[in-house]
Design a protein that fits this description.
Blueprint lengths: L33 E10 L2 E11 L4 E5 L6 H8 L7 E6 L2 E2 L5 H6 L2 E4 L11 H5 L6 E2 L2 E5 L1 H15 L14 H13 L5 E5 L7 H15 L4 E5 L3 H7 L2 E6 L2 E7 L5 H9 L17 E8 L8 E6 L3 E5 L6 H8 L9 E4 L2 E3 L4 H7 L1 E4 L3 H5 L6 H6 L7 E2 L2 E2 L1 H15 L15 H13 L5 E5 L7 H16 L3 E5 L3 H7 L2 E6 L2 E7 L5 H8 L8
Parallel strand pairs: 3-10, 3-11, 6-9, 9-10, 15-22, 15-23, 18-21, 21-22
Antiparallel strand pairs: 1-2, 1-4, 4-5, 7-8, 11-12, 13-14, 13-16, 16-17, 19-20, 23-24
Helix pairs in contact: 5-6, 13-14
Length: about 525
């Protein structure tokens, strides 16, 4: 890495500016748009930020990465006016900036696009985009000028190079289109600095490309983007520079070309991860589950497959291909229109989650916040939720039995929590996901369905989750691994089924389990050939 200049930026960057043309950091260009110097912030018992420096130039994508709890969110909340720093200084356009509220941040041209959407589904695209500042009819301040609103919204979308109808209700859009509307809403405020927090967490590979096209359009106009993501492959594709936080400190800040993904991982976790997908080979046993001609749609194609004890069966596909619908049907959440499920050779009734659990099926849902955990309850109570009947006598839960179970699973899974009585919402994403796993391991199911098991967690926590999935297979459980991250499916699975338009279109085994083969099948092609 280059030496620091007095501005806290790297000297001699040699940056490839292919994404943004000649904006920002050209040889004869201007200085940084944003400088954050010596930022410190503490909470009771925790030093969240310890002298962090961060610089952002016009027309660049600057990745901000680190494990959960590294300080990323705190730094961004200070920039957005949500938190006040304890010490340090912020300089925008060479002038000191005191950001004491979100409104002040917006007035300075700073906008944040959060992972969870803030759109109103019943309103149109134009209404959502202009919601922060709807234009009014001249002389009639309370009457919205719908023509001006539609025209300005259309202009912003045109600048992003997307063809979304401004009159369409937001609820009719795809997830990727809603993400772009969030970006357009931020740009309606004359944004100069756009922070994107895990913008691709719920997007398929195809939808990611559409979002990246929109980001390229932004930086070509000189807008600076702070890109926060746990997906290193995306970070290396879209970013010009990268800053790595660890334990509240900036441990690396340099052009993306100066680091490899492995070096970034080592900087993030403070150690080297020898293999992300460190899965020991399990002994494949007899068939644990057989799905015969299961109909997810009355007019659809039946789905059939088997998964064996000790096997990790990956199910891949683009968003909406039917893999999540299949998982929910197998767990009794979604409706089916025919077919049957067999466990250990005999047909079973999985028409409700309760019946599925009694048959020996567990499920990690794709959304731990909404469906996997009760955020207000403690770690120990969340772990016990699936086996309360086993821990109760005459309808009263034994606190001793609950505490013993929680202590056992916290130790087994390496859950980092100050106390089992800590509200689960206070844990990092990776540790929350471990609590979800602990909850189902307490049931000891024969078949574990895992939907997006590493969504929104950092690379170090991902490696631990992969280890736990491997341990499940080692113990003889059959694992259904459903993920939108193709590398994850290919790296962890013994076999991969690929779905397209609600049906299984191929099975990949051995050396045929490649990203390219999965994508060909997922997009409607064949597994062999270009």
């Amino acid at each position: 890495m280059g030496d620091k200049t007095e501005d806290g930026t790297e000297a001699g960057m040699g940056l490839d500016i292919g994404l943004r043309g000649n904006a920002g950091m050209d040889a004869g260009g201007t200085g940084p748009l944003l400088k954050m110097r010596g930022i410190c912030k503490s909470f009771p018992g925790v030093k969240a930020l310890d002298g962090v420096d961060f610089a952002l130039w016009p027309g660049e994508v600057h990745a901000l990465i680190g494990e959960n709890g590294a300080g990323k969110s705190t730094l961004i909340k200070i920039l957005a006016g949500v938190y006040r720093m304890d010490s340090g200084r912020i300089v925008i356009d060479g002038r000191p900036a005191a950001i004491a509220s979100p409104r002040q941040a917006q007035e300075l041209g700073i906008s944040v696009v959060h992972q969870e959407f803030t759109l109103v589904p019943q309103m149109t695209v134009a209404e959502n985009i202009m919601l922060p500042d709807m234009p009014s009819v001249l002389g009639l301040g309370s009457l919205v000028d719908k023509g001006a609103m539609a025209a300005e919204s259309q202009r912003i979308l045109d600048d992003l190079g997307v063809g979304i109808s401004v009159s369409a209700p937001v609820r009719s859009l795809t997830v990727a289109e809603q993400q772009i509307v969030e970006v357009a809403k931020a740009l309606s405020r004359k944004t100069r600095i756009l922070v994107m927090d895990e913008p691709t967490a719920a997007l398929s590979n195809v939808e990611v490309e559409r979002l990246f096209d929109a980001i390229r359009a932004l930086v070509s106009k000189g807008i600076a983007v702070v890109y926060i993501s746990h997906k290193l492959e995306e970070v290396f594709r879209i970013s010009h520079r990268i800053t790595v936080l660890r334990d509240g400190r900036a441990v690396a800040s340099c052009p993306i070309s100066d680091l490899t993904p492995n070096e970034v991982v080592k900087q993030m976790v403070g150690r080297e991860l020898t293999s992300m997908y460190d899965k020991r080979k399990a002994d494949i046993g007899p068939c644990a589950m057989e799905v015969r001609d299961l109909l997810l749609d009355p007019a659809g194609t039946p789905v059939s497959f088997t998964v064996h004890a000790g096997e990790i069966l990956g199910i891949a596909g683009l968003m909406g291909a039917g893999q999540i619908q299949l998982a929910r049907a197998l767990f009794g959440i979604g409706r089916t229109y025919g077919g049957e499920v067999l466990l250990r050779g005999g047909p079973v009734n999985v028409s409700s989650p309760d019946k599925a659990v009694r048959c020996g099926i567990g499920m990690v849902t794709e959304s731990r916040k909404e469906e996997g955990l009760v955020q207000l309850l403690s770690v120990s109570r969340n772990i016990a939720l699936t086996v309360l009947d086993r821990l109760s006598h005459l309808g009263v839960v034994s606190s001793w039995a609950e505490d013993a179970l929680a202590a056992s699973k916290i130790d087994e899974l390496g859950i980092k929590t100050p106390t089992p009585k800590q509200p689960v919402r206070n844990l990092s994403g990776g540790n929350q996901q471990k609590v979800v796993l602990a909850k189902w391991l307490a049931v000891d199911p024969d078949v574990m369905i895992m939907c997006e098991p590493t969504r929104g967690i950092d690379v170090g926590a991902k490696a631990e989750i992969y280890r736990l999935i491997g341990d499940m297979a080692q113990s003889g459980k059959a694992v259904l691994l459903i993920s939108s991250e193709i590398l994850e499916v290919v790296g962890m699975s013994d076999r991969v089924l690929v779905m397209h338009s609600g049906r299984v279109v191929g099975e990949l085994t051995g050396d045929g389990r490649t990203q390219e083969a999965v994508m060909r099948l997922a997009t409607g092609g064949s597994a062999v050939g270009a």
